[in-house]
Amino acid sequence: MDTIIADEERILRVWTPRILRTILLAAIALLVFGLIMLAWQNPSYYVARFHSLQGNVRYQNRKSLTGLIVTALAGDPRSIMTLGLMVLTLVPLVRVAFCFLLFVKERDGIYVAFTAYVLIGLVAGVILGRVG
Amino acid sequence: MLIMLGLLALAVGAGFIGALSGLGGGVFIVPALLIFARIPMSVAVGASMISVVATSAGASVAFVRDGWTNLRVAMALECATVTGAVTGAYLAGIVPTWVLELLFALMMLQSAYFTMTKTGESIVPRSDPLADRLKLGGRIPAASGNKEIHYGVINVPGGAILMLVAGLMSGLLGIGSGALKVMAMDYVMHLPLKVSSATSNFMIGVTAGAGALVFLARGDVATVIAAPVALGVTAGAVVGGRLLPHANVQSLRTMFVAILLLIAVEMGWRALSGF
User: What φ, ψ does residue A32 adopt, rounded to 5°?
Assistant: First the structure.
């Protein structure tokens, strides 16, 4: 029992907060940077985009990850923000991955299966979104 | 620039009220975007879902440090919520808007009922055979002294069914469904209220994350709305969370219930008038 608590302590209470905080700060930095860039470079685009969304114009922001990174590196604010949103969704994924590691370490078969199912569910969401 | 600041202000307000009421920002930002920013439901849902992930990510940095989160209960039930959330987010692209609005109104009524009735504690000393096999029971500090109280867990299938519904609602409506999750754990599985709340907070991010991934992969997240909303709701939630220990939540309860009922009426009206 003590070993289990020590593992939980190390995996959940030491490593996880550090890594989650880093991912979260990276996501916030990308979002803030993208928003400031957009407001600075092309404020009229923001207003036009907002009004077209109000008019229920179908919005599709569907790029490949490579395409997104390339345009973000080229300084496109929308791609930078989309990348920020993607980094943000890594937080729950990483959290479940840490739980998976913990249960593997504890050799708890049922919970390894549960966390694996959740991870597969998260990945299935991406696939379903791409084909849907 | 004014529009961006207006969205930020709306989001900060929604995150603040969401944290004080314990219901999360999603419940308030979706109607705020619909009513004040005149954004269509589909766009509001995508932006809100991202904001739920952001808020939960901010809170989860403290990750189970509180000692109240029951990790095993969370992961066992997460199987149901993630299944529901992925299905819901997929269906959100197909289901007519009036159905989403009607479901939102029903969820507001459920949240109002939950806010009015969350008082009791009904701990069971022993788990039932399934919960025992899954090692779901745990310990919490006793109200007095250094002793710990052991709590059992019962009716896992019943809780899992409600969690599936909670996940489905998260995916369809872009909310955390925290009120439904806590009800499933508290009323159905008889977990202590504080354990239910902490475990629900832990689960919300993963559930919303599953839905957000479907929306992002489908290209249905309007970045220009989602980015300021996510930042604003998170900032509001941080301030609300800081104020929470000093606020007289009991006296605010009536106001929260009134807001929830108003939102339910507005969403119900939108659904039925657009029917």
Answer: -65, -45
pLDDT for the residue numbered B67: 67
* B 118-157 residues with CB < 8 A to A: 134
Is the Cβ pair B86, A86 closer than 8 Å? no
What is the distance between the alpha carbons of residues A114 and B49, in angstroms, rounded to a whole number? 24
ipTM: 0.88
Q: How far apart are the first and last CA of chain B?
A: 36
Between positions 66 and 105 of A, the ones with CB within 8 A of B are 78, 81-82, 84-86, 88-89, 91-93, 95-96, 99, 102-103
pLDDT score, position B65: 55
> Tens of pLDDT along A75-121?
889 899 999 999 998 888 888 998 898 899 889 999 999 999 999 99
Residue A37 at interface with chain B, using a CB cutoff of 8 Å = no
Total tally of structural domains belonging to chain B: 1
- Cβ-contact B46, B215 below 8 angstroms: yes
**Residues of the domain holding B25:** 2-273
The range of the structural domain enclosing residue A7 comes to: 2-131
Looking at chain B, which residue has its C-alpha nearest residue A116? B79
